[in-house]
């Protein structure tokens, strides 16, 4: 019985070591990984926020695969309050020569589906679940960005943080 426990323990330890030591290429080899989060409160008391990540693959300045997952919420706006999740399946992306941001084309799925309209009105700003050439506002250069002063007006309180990592 002791030998069986020892063998089982060694086997589990080896399995754990292999799973921790191996990279997870669930979406293929990415060239860029990004995370982002933002919140704001308007002078009227409405608030909104979002948080999520994107992984871009297929090249350094353009590619043919990317995945983005993020959640967003709106509280006390003229259109009401809601929380939703967006899953973007990006079929192509490029780096804008003007803004130097990621520009994406693909399709989006919203959960819950009953909030597709309000959720998409915030991002990507289209009324349909397919989109083309949307500048996501994420810089295509490695680094940490704090953009609250750029995006929020003087009467709004909030933050907008982006982390961009290039994968060699």
Radius of gyration over C-alpha positions, nearest whole angstrom = 20 Å
Helix content bin: 10-25%
How many domains is the backbone divided into? 1
Gap between N and C termini: 48 Å
- The share of residues in extended strands comes to over 45%
Q: What would you call the structural class?
A: alpha+beta
Descriptive terms for the model:
single chain; 168 residues; alpha+beta; nine-stranded antiparallel sheet; 3 helices; 9 strands; 53% strand; globular; disordered N terminus
SSE topology sketch:
Elements: H1 2-21, E1 30-41, E2 47-57, E3 62-63, E4 65-77, E5 80-95, E6 101-111, H2 116-122, E7 130-139, E8 143-146, H3 148-151, E9 157-166
Antiparallel strand pairs: 1-2, 1-9, 2-4, 3-5, 4-5, 5-6, 6-7, 8-9
Structural features, described:
- The chain is built from three helices and nine strands.
- The N and C termini lie far apart (48 Å).
- By secondary structure, the protein is of the alpha+beta class.
- It is globular.
- It has one domain.
- A hairpin with a 5-residue loop joins β5 and β6.
- Strands 1, 2, 3, 4, 5, 6, 7, 8 and 9 form a nine-stranded antiparallel beta sheet that branches.
């Amino acid at each position: 019985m002791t030998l069986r426990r020892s063998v089982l323990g060694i086997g589990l330890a080896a399995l754990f070591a292999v799973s921790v030591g191996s990279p997870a290429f669930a979406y293929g080899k990415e060239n860029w990984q990004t995370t982002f989060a933002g919140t704001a409160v308007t002078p009227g008391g409405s608030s909104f926020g979002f948080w999520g990540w994107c992984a871009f693959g297929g090249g350094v300045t353009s590619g043919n695969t990317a995945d983005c997952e993020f959640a967003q919420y709106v509280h006390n706006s003229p259109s009401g309050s809601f929380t939703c999740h967006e899953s973007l399946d990006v079929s192509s992306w490029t780096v804008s020569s003007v803004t130097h941001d990621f520009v994406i084309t693909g399709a989006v799925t919203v959960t819950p589906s009953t909030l597709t309209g309000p959720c998409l009105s915030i991002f990507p700003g289209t009324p349909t679940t397919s989109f083309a050439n949307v500048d996501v506002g994420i810089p295509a250069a490695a680094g940490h960005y704090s953009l609250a002063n750029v995006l929020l007006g003087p009467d709004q309180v909030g933050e907008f943080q982006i982390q961009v990592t290039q994968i060699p």
